[in-house]
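User: For my dataset I need records formatted as: sequence, then structure tokens, nothing else. Please produce one.
Assistant:
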Amino acid sequence: MSGALDGIRVLDFSNFIAGPYCAMLLGAMGAEVIRVEPPGGALDRDIGPYAPNGQAMYPWHYSCNKLGVTLDLKNAKAKGLLHKLLARTDVVLEAFSPGVKKKLGLDLRSLHAVNPAISLLSISGYGQYGPYAERGGLDTVAQGMAGLMAITGPEGGEPMRAGVAVVDYGAALYGLYGVMLALYQREKTGRGQAIDISLLDVAVSFMETVFAEMAVLGVERKAMGNRRPYTAPTNMFQAKDGYVYVSITTDLFWRRFCKVAGIDHLRDDPRFNSNRVRYKHQKELNQIAADWVGARTVEEVLGEMIPAGIAAGPVLTLPQVMADEHVSARNMILEMNYEGVGPVPIPGLAIKMSENPGQIDTPAPAVGQHNDYVYGELLSCTPEELAALAADGVI
């Protein structure tokens, strides 16, 4: 089955998570993605965790479905190869600061001088303009600057980052969305365009109604642990043998919860009969739910709540997630084989498409693994030319 993006070629100059993951998703949907690294490898090849054979595991999770080449963009002799690649490319993905990008000839004007059909996806800490544009930025810094850390963590505790790089993943998905829009627009105009994704922008966009609450209600949201600010009972509750998350977000869920928990006498209580008032009594309602859950096992709690149509689920450990039958049925944990290590589990594709489902089927390339193919077969360099390029440090 062909991929939805068959025939699209992407040059990926990025590293770390956001750019590489975006490029990997493009590759999973059929695009030919060429990861371009400096000779010796990209910076993210030195970031842990580290496998027993000493390899950094970072690229394993974000560079599958790619060809790997090396090219020293700072070497004057690299320009010819770069222009040959760009002439055959649809999308360039990069994560340099605006100033560095221009020096390397990867700004939109320089790209369009070679190939007007190219779209340029730039993922950076602060975007391509604004007072902070030339600063370097990372996921955790963006979480802090957007206020995400201020509202995350235990009630009364210090600011806390999310457990994974949520902003990087969000940037990857926004970038994917931008590329699709740019390719669609190109069908009408024949020209590519620039797509500007900022980690700080992404983090700010995740802030729900937090800013409106402060402006309209005068309420500055603080960290509140696992509860939600405007629904109750909504929290993580401890059962006899584990934890369950219960979310009573509507009046319908409230009525169902009252029946399951045996508190029908509270259903129409003026303090609780509407979502508009229930959240004001979170402490009392969360305690009622905690007492009910605490007297039961996780299986018993879910055995009553799920048939009643209540949004509830177990809080799983990592081994439990990896063994979960639904996660398995949805192919959300795949295995990639790496030499000297064996099968390595990685997250699967969250995008499910009926006609072009996509697949992650090749492991991350070694440094320069596909130089001969890309430069030799695709760009028609002779073996002698390749040897000279390698000797000069160009590739």
